[in-house]
TrEMBL record:
The keyword rRNA processing does not apply. Belongs to the PrpF family. PANTHER family: ACONITATE ISOMERASE-RELATED, ISOMERASE YBHH-RELATED. It comes from Demequina capsici. Pfam families: PrpF. This is PrpF domain-containing protein. Keywords: Isomerase. GO terms for molecular function: isomerase activity.
């Protein structure tokens, strides 16, 4: 099979394949089959493809020029499940989002300014729009800089991300606290449908490592039960087996000077950090009086970033309640980094032969 133009990029604390929509089949079923073969799924090691054997490194971003008047490019995120033949579009990814603007500029989709270039990105999965500002000295994208983010070694050029406020309901049920599977929970969606629960209510401290949490069979089963019961409450289409939202976020009091400590199931593995829009949803819960996160949190000083602690460090962002509305939030502002790792052609695994007709 002829190779397909593809870039392997890190965006924030995630890594994935970046492709132009024009280089993929228009039919979603054919596209997803191709992406499974590109990433090497289903196989826990993804040994025969680009995937990294973990949800954080088995991601795909598809980019094209946008027809929307308020956006420059469209960004479709696809989560490829490593060990199952599943390609999900049920969520977006704010980390891979950070790679979309430099990728679009590298591919020549948009003009590059001298110094910095701002790209407005329509996130197809959710309909939201974000403005990304990329460093472009001399009219060229640079990945070198002094911005550091937890979960990524070294430093890189900053990618400033301004997320427009969510257009849907911040609280899908209309309640600050619901009871889900016998546990008090705040069901919140500030860009990522999330169920926020107290770690202590599930019998853990909240400082456990992802490996410890994943090995706790009783905890994993309870998280799955909470997630299944949250589906109809949050109006999410699909089933828990085929849809990667909502995320279940276990929260506890901060331990490293932040606002809140988190452990996030995404949905079956535990995030080594936290996603961008996932952090925005947690931050919104922190801001909401009466939520399960608000009562545990240490609120930042006015004007200071809200620091979300996670297993490998912290995530700083600015999220505030909308003026005059305690059930809405304003724009979220974060700094991410991105880097081009490889640019060339990917050669997907050959398609499976058709099943033999019965004799």
């Amino acid at each position: 099979m002829t190779g397909i133009p593809c870039a392997l990029m890190r965006g924030g604390t995630s890594k994935g394949a970046m492709l132009l929509a024009s280089d993929l089949p228009a039919d979603p079923e054919a596209r997803d089959d191709l992406l499974l073969r590109i990433m090497g799924s289903p196989d826990p090691r993804e040994i025969d493809g680009l995937g990294g054997a973990h949800p954080l490194t088995s991601k795909v971003g598809v980019v094209s020029l946008s027809a929307r008047p308020d956006a420059d490019i469209d960004y479709l995120f696809l989560q490829v499940v490593p060990d199952q033949p599943i390609v999900s579009t049920s969520q977006t990814c704010g980390n891979i989002l950070a790679a979309t603007a430099p990728f679009a500029l590298e591919r020549g989709l948009l003009p590059i300014m001298d110094g910095a270039t701002t790209v407005r990105v329509h996130m197809v999965n959710t309909g939201a729009v974000a403005a990304l500002t990329v460093r472009t000295p001399g009219g060229e994208v640079t990945y070198e800089g002094d911005a550091e983010i937890s979960g990524v070694p070294g430093s890189a050029a900053p990618v400033e991300v301004a997320l427009d406020p969510p257009s849907g309901a911040l609280l899908p049920t209309g309640h600050v606290v619901d009871e889900v599977a016998g546990v008090a929970a705040t069901l919140v969606d500030a860009g990522m449908a999330s169920v926020v629960v107290r770690a202590a209510d599930l019998g853990i401290v909240g400082d456990e490592s992802p490996a410890e949490l994943e090995a706790n069979e009783a905890l994993v089963a309870k998280v799955a039960q909470i997630r299944a019961e949250a589906f109809p409450l949050m109006g999410i289409a699909g089933t828990p087996e085929t849809t990667t939202t909502p995320k279940i976020v276990l929260v506890s009091a901060p331990a490293e000077g932040g606002a809140i400590r988190t452990r996030s199931f995404i949905p079956y593995r535990v995030h080594e950090a936290i996603g961008v829009v996932g952090a925005a949803s947690v931050a919104a819960a922190v801001r909401l009086p009466g939520s399960v996160a608000h009562e545990l949190a240490v609120q930042p000083e006015p004007g200071a970033p809200l620091r979300v602690e996670h297993p490998t460090g912290f995530f700083d962002l600015h999220v505030d309640l909308a003026d005059g509305d305690e059930l809405a939030v304003g724009p979220a502002r974060v700094v991410r980094t991105a880097r081009m790792i490889m640019d060339g052609f990917v050669h997907p695994r050959p398609p499976a032969p058709p099943a033999s007709a019965p004799a």
